[in-house]
Amino acid sequence: MQKSYYPKAGEISGQWYHVDANGQNLGRLASRIANVLMGKHRPDYTPGVDLGDFVVVTNCERITVTGGKLVDKIYYRHSGYPGGLKETSLKRMLETHPERVLESAVRGMLPGNKMGRKLLKKLKVYAGPEHPHGPQQPQPLTLG
After folding, report:
1. Which residues contact 143 (CB under 8 A, 6 or more apart)?
2. How confident is the model at residue 45, as a pLDDT?
């Protein structure tokens, strides 16, 4: 009888990847990052185990979108008080907080449970080209 392999916590080694978001499409980039965070790119992928790797994204202020999404896409948040619904367009969000745009897109592609929240902590997003994760020696992630 052949037994299934189930990865243990001590056997998992997290790899660091670096992605330059300059000129990348928002949705396609977020989809690829979500797959890497979940560990679906690995041959030993198991759905209930955190096999994902760390992803560092730089230059997210230069991300692109297709069509009229720059004006039409709206981000909503609520303060909790009556009449406290705030809305912000994608264009305004890219001007003020560009890292939140990519984080929000990736969050929507991860599971909506404890595992998804744990995986989202492995995503590091920066608006400019510099990042403080040089000692981890992130490898460039090929998107394609």
Report:
1. 19, 24, 28, 29, 32
2. 87
Spatial contact of 12 and 50, defined as CB atoms under 8 Å apart: yes
Whole-angstrom distance, CA of residue 60 vs CA of residue 54:
17
Distances (CA, A) of 78 to 85, 106, 110: 4, 21, 22
Give the pLDDT confidence of 74-86 residue by residue, as tens digits. 999 999 999 999 9
User: In this structure, which amino acid lies at residue 105?
Assistant: A
The token pair at 136 is 């981890």
Instruction: Return the structure tokens found at 82.
Output: 């009556």
Coil vs helix vs strand at 17: strand
Contact 13, 52 (CB under 8 A): no
The two beta strands, 74-78 and 85-89, are antiparallel
Spatial neighbors of 128 by CB under 8 A, at least 6 apart, are: 58, 59, 61
Angle of helix 26-38 versus helix 98-107 axis, rounded to 10: 60
Rounded to two decimals, what is the model's pTM? 0.91
SS3 of 77, please? strand
Q: Which domains does the chain have, with CATH numbers?
A: 14-64+91-140 (3.90.1180.10)
